[in-house]
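dumping this here before i forget
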Amino acid sequence: MRWFFLILAIASITLALALGPRGTKFSSPPFMLFPDMDNQYKLKAQKPSFFFADGQGARPPVEGTVPLGLGAPLGDEAGSSRLDYSRGDSYYSTGLFGDFYGKGFPEELTMDEAFLERGRERYQITCTPCHGTSGNGAGIVSKYWAMPPTANLVDARVKEMPEGQIFWTITHGKGLMGPYNGVLPVEDRWAVTAYLRALQAAADN
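structure:
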């Protein structure tokens, strides 16, 4: 037993000497096992950069950039009214009537060709990578991710869902699909729902 304590004491002293006293400053730089992790080629905020002609690291937004949650490009005042993240408890904001999913589309919407085109555009941007252009779940992600399979949005199970449930799922996400309430304004989520109904109707023909 005494040998155990002796070996433990020697090991402890050796470890303490190897680590050195904490907070001590050394004249030589520390040893870097992976120097590329300590000295990365990256641009830090508010720092100059000689990569750009003006020498500034901070860059203005690309023309046409849309801030997160805003439905119109920078400088478009019409977009300021689109910052609506499902506030309120109306059917338009939640897709629910009380504790139940609602059927049909809210009366606040104008169901016309422009609205459906908006849904097609938003669907192509946010939904196509996983669910595919036709909604059958064969998007580009399916080539690299097989389990669990991406939902087929044109099968009978989804067709039977009320519109409110589809809107609610887009808003809050389901399974591995995250919520889109911070990406798509309320009206755009309804537009995607309407376009999905069009895809389902086209799949029947």
